[in-house]
Amino acid sequence: MGPPRRGRTPGWADRPSRPGPAGRAVRSRVDGMSESVRVDVWIWSVRLVKTRSLAAAACRGGHVRVNGERVKPAHALKTGDEVRVRQEGRERVVVVKQLIRKRVGAPVAVECYVDNSPPPPPREAVAPAGIRDRGAGRPTKRDRREMERLRGLEASRRAASAAGPQG
User: Fold this and answer.
1) Which pTM does this prediction carry?
2) Contact at 8 Å (CB) between 116 and 95?
């Protein structure tokens, strides 16, 4: 007999396969889903972040925790894990119900997790200070001082002027 044939792994014929491109065998899963998915891929696919690169950056920056631990983007996520994502001053707390790899629409994405996040803080009912009507012109000194007082900048201006010129 000659040398062993290259390119064949022992036991390859025992694995389930289907014909793939160019007639080669491609291994397939029976259920189509795997047991684990990368955490950055999952938080992107269920629409917790806008882009995959933002998801990876959030993981690297320590803004993503799985079961209370900071994780890297390639951390394997399993069903039942608790994922905490901190973004824009708010923390989203979700429990994984289903693992997906491809980004899906919002109605389907919501079915993949249980949202245990605290409700978002209420928006300010008061109009933001410092916004003037269009065409009102330049504010007078009195108007400017009133706007600064509303913004809470009055004390900081006084402290800066009391210190005098730096020179």
Assistant:
1) 0.57
2) yes
